Every structure is written in C-alpha cells, then in structure tokens.
Amino acid sequence: MNIVEPLPLTLTYTTAPVDDANIFDPAVIYNPGSRSVYVDSVYEKIANTAMYPTFYPDIYYPKGSTVSVAATNYIASVDIVFLSPQTDTQHWQVISDKGEWGNITDYAVDDIVWTYDSGTNTTFYICLMAHSKTQFDLNNTSVWKQVQMSYGDTVFYRTGDVVYKAPLLIGSGWYKCIQNISNQDPATDTRWVAQTTATPNLSKDWVLVGKSNPNRCIDNRLYTVTHGVDVKMVFTTIGFTSTIALIGLSAGSVRIIVKAAGATIFDETKNTIIHPSLNWFEWLFDPLNYLNSLVVDLPICKDPEITFFFNGSIEIGHIVAGKMRIIGDTLWKVSGEMNDYSIKAQDQFGQTDLIEGNYSMPKTFAVQIDSKKMDLIENYITSRRAKLSLFVGSKVDAFATTVFGYPRSFSTVLEGPVKSVVNLEIEEVV
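^ thats the sequence. predicted structure below, dont judge the formating
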C-alpha cells in the first residue's frame, strides 16, 4: 500500500477545447442564462442588476459591487467596509457644537458655533484659538474659520478637515479628521478595480457553474472529465514529486515528459488499452477497454514541469502528482463495493423510472506493516483523514486497486513484535 499526497497542479498550456461556453468578453452584454468561461471556470449570468451607482464613502460594499466616480466605473474585488465618523474613532474625533454664537462666555479650540444670515441661512464656524466672546467676534478670521463641508462631499479626507454628519445611531454631528483617509478613493484604493464590464468572478450577477473543460482534470472530482482529441497538456507544480497518476482515464496511449530544472528526467509512452480477450472473435469484435487508472513512478524531483500527449479521443477524470509514501504490503482479498447515485423509483402502478447517475467504488484493504512503525503509520493515516489522497494498493494497474479519496475507516491489529496489520476503508470521491 502506497499513499500519494497530491500537489496543486497549474495548467499552463493545453489543446483541449474550451467548449463549455465562449471566453468572457468584457465588451459583450450578457443576458441572464448566458454562460461564459473566465480564467479556468464556467459562470452563468443570473441577473442584470443596476450597474455603477454613485459612490458614497460610508456605505458597505460587498464583493462585486459596482460604482461610478468621475466617469470611471469600478468594481469591489473584496467586501469593503467604510466606517462613518460616528464609529471610526481611528480617523475622526467628535467636536462640540456650542449652538448659536454668543450663547456662552468662553470658547475653546474646535468649538463649533453658528449664526443666522438674514434670519434664514445658517453659517457655521470653528474656533481656532481659545478666547472669550468679548475679545473677538466671528469676523476675526485668525480666531474663527467658516466650515461648510458635509460628510460625503469628497471621497478622501486630510487631517484637520471638519465635516458634519447627521447623527443616525450615535454621535452629535460635527467631526474633525485626525488622520488622513485616502483609501476611500476608488481611483487609489486597490480594493476597487476599474472595469468596463464586471468580470464573472467578482460580479454578483454571475454564479459559478464549475471548472472549464481543460481544468476539470484537476478539480478534485472524478466525474467532471476533461475531453478532447489528440490533446497536449502542460502542468507545473511546486514541491517534491515522485509519482504521477491518471484516474478515470480513457485514452489509447499517453506520452509523459517530465522536466526539472530545465532537464528532461522522464520520457515514456504508456499504453492504456486492456486486451483480456480469450479468443479471436472477442479480440476482433469486442469494444476496446481501457485502464481506469495509470500510476507512473518518477525519479524524485522538485518543482517539475509535466507534459502529457494523449493519443486519440480521450477522457480524463483527474490527474495526480506528488510524493509517494510506502505504508506496507497490501494483502490479498481486497474488497470493493459500488455506491450508486442513480435514481431508481417505482410509482404506485409498479412502473420503474431509472435515471443513471454517478457512482463510486470504495475499497477495503488489509495492509501488513512493520510492528515497530505502528505509531508512525497511525499518526500519518489519521493526519490524512480529511484530505484527498491517492491510495495505491498494487502497482499492477489492471488489479484496479487505486482509489482517489479519503480514509472512511481505519483500524489496527498488533499481531506480533515483527509484523502487524492495518485495515483501511477508502471512500472514493465522485
């Protein structure tokens, strides 16, 4: 029994068709129900919401929100929370409103007063120097400064700016900026991305459907397959690699080239057709059968580039690359079962409806190990209990003992001082 810890693979080149939908074009207007491929995924348009409203600096903008500032449209790449002066004590300080000028005798720095103009218009002033009302009046510009900015009139503020914010929950109305606030401007705030059309991975008008065809073979699912004819695929990964596996494979042959540090360390062509025929008739007329999985050992290498050339019409469920760890010797009598996710229903008249669905093939292994390694192996397998791994019962591919999944159950039997047995039930992912 060997266990391979998969490394994340990055697809850098492929000739597999992107036939799920057209590549996303920001110049195209998509209607609800349209599908488009953006980067490595397929998205479906589900709505057309109002686009590009006016930006306000104290509104919560969830990821995908769109705004317009100075004739430029922006979209929020993350959730953006702007605290208003009432709650943002890091940048704002409450200052006192002393009412109409002349109501009190002494004034302190930052006191706010107001006065009527012809009995209808109100003008506000901030005190710049402590004094008594008998010393200076509002006409002295070195002592009193007129203020008129309402919060939201601009998208950024500097230390010393004074604004009025109508109280909503808490606060008294007048605030003084005590620290520059420059990240509220979408033109300089990196959380806002200038856009012509909101991209599917950001916009709330799109929903993720799944990976695009070329990337389905690295999405950790077996029944979302990559298909094509005479396909070339190039992957890179970071980490040590000693094993490559192709799961859910249907192809006549595959050539595998592995390069590390610019040098080719592996180049072989593998035939994946099975010929179990017992006579010439079966040989000539039975359909071709393919290995369900192909496991290939490599010279251990770091950060490899892996190239596949698939011959003919192909389907690939999943590709695994990583470092293999030897657990022990798989004993005979490996058992398997089928979990069928098809729909099978009978109505009140006994008529049967069958809708074929996916299935999985979990397997149970008995593995003989060195008794002195029991604690080490227990710790390792339990560490993989909620992580996808490739379990290779035998390197004879036709034995069908390769399972991509996770441990469903694990038990140990300490049979003696030399050899012991661990029992593994492996659940296969769908």
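The chain has four domains: 2-16+212-322, 26-76+191-211, 83-177, 335-428.
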